[in-house]
Design brief:
This protein is elongated. The strands form four sheets. It has a five-stranded parallel beta sheet, sandwiched between helices. Helix 1 packs across helix 5 and helix 6 packs across helix 8. Strand 4, helix 3 and strand 5 form a beta-alpha-beta unit. By secondary structure, the protein is an alpha/beta fold. The protein folds into two domains: about 120 residues, Response regulator (Rossmann fold), CATH 3.40.50.2300; about 90 residues, Orthogonal Bundle (Arc Repressor Mutant, subunit A). The chain has eight helices and 13 strands. Keywords: DNA-binding, Phosphoprotein, Transcription, Transcription regulation, Two-component regulatory system. GO terms for molecular function: phosphorelay response regulator activity; transcription cis-regulatory region binding. It comes from Microbacterium aerolatum.
């Protein structure tokens, strides 16, 4: 598996450090392989207590952390990390039907989750999103500008302009616009948008998507040729006029 996304590294060029924690060795081996193919330095742990020790020594930039472990569960690991002042971002691994775990994990200070069984590509994508949000890494691509028509979005500086006019967006509006622009001319359902922008599917209200689309329209399209389009009964897309 190789990523078609630009490599993320520390500003000084050093590799990102990722700690993967799960009591299933086959799973941690697969995760480690996929993470190393991203160019990242990887350590693994098979228990919660081991994870705490490795986290102290390794100082990872992000954790992939299973919730269900025999000695110390993922919630307890996260709690101890936070109590010690460690704010490392955490991507939880949860059972597919453990809705309560997902809610509790994010409420407790986790940053995102994926449900088992998952694809390695999804884990990488979620980690990249978390790492970008923390600002600890830069993309080694020189292509941080997204463009749709006369609309531009700079993924590094978070600046958005349309026809040379700067547009101020909230963090959530920015993430929503970025997701749409990365999928230009592709119809995205409310469920897809909820899952990628808000990172949950446990009862999230689709009305929040409609609300934020309306916010974006007022800022992006007001008085201009519309770029944001509703495909009734399907979802939303962004495309430049023909």
């Amino acid at each position: 598996m190789t990523s078609d996304q630009p490599e993320l590294r520390h500003p000084d060029g050093s590799a990102l450090r990722i700690l993967a924690v799960d009591d299933e060795q086959m799973l941690t081996d697969l995760l480690a392989m996929a993470l190393r193919m991203e160019g990242w330095e990887v350590r693994t742990a098979s228990s919660g207590l081991e994870a705490l020790q490795v986290a102290r020594d390794f100082e990872p930039d992000a954790l992939v952390l299973d919730i269900m472990m025999p000695d110390l569960d993922g919630m307890s690991v996260l709690r101890r990390l936070r109590e010690s002042g460690n704010l490392v971002p955490v991507l939880f691994l949860t059972a597919k039907d453990a809705v309560g775990d997902r809610v509790a994990g994010l409420t407790a200070g986790g940053d995102d989750y994926v449900t088992k069984p998952f694809s390695l590509e999804e884990v990488i994508a979620r980690l990249r999103a978390i790492i970008r949000r923390t600002g600890v890494a830069t993309a080694d691509d020189g292509q941080s500008i997204l463009r749709v028509g006369d609309l531009t979005l700079n993924e590094d500086s978070h600046e958005v302009e349309r026809d040379g006019t700067e547009i101020e967006l909230t963090a959530t509006e920015f993430e929503l616009l970025r997701y749409l622009m990365r999928n230009e001319r592709r119809v995205l359902s409310k469920a897809q948008i909820l899952d990628r922008v808000w990172s949950y599917d446990f009862g999230g209200k689709s009305s929040v998507v409609e609300l934020y689309i309306s916010y974006l329209r007022k800022k992006i399209d007001a008085g201009r040729t519309p770029l944001l389009h509703t495909v009734r009964g399907v979802g939303y897309m962004i495309k430049a006029p023909q």
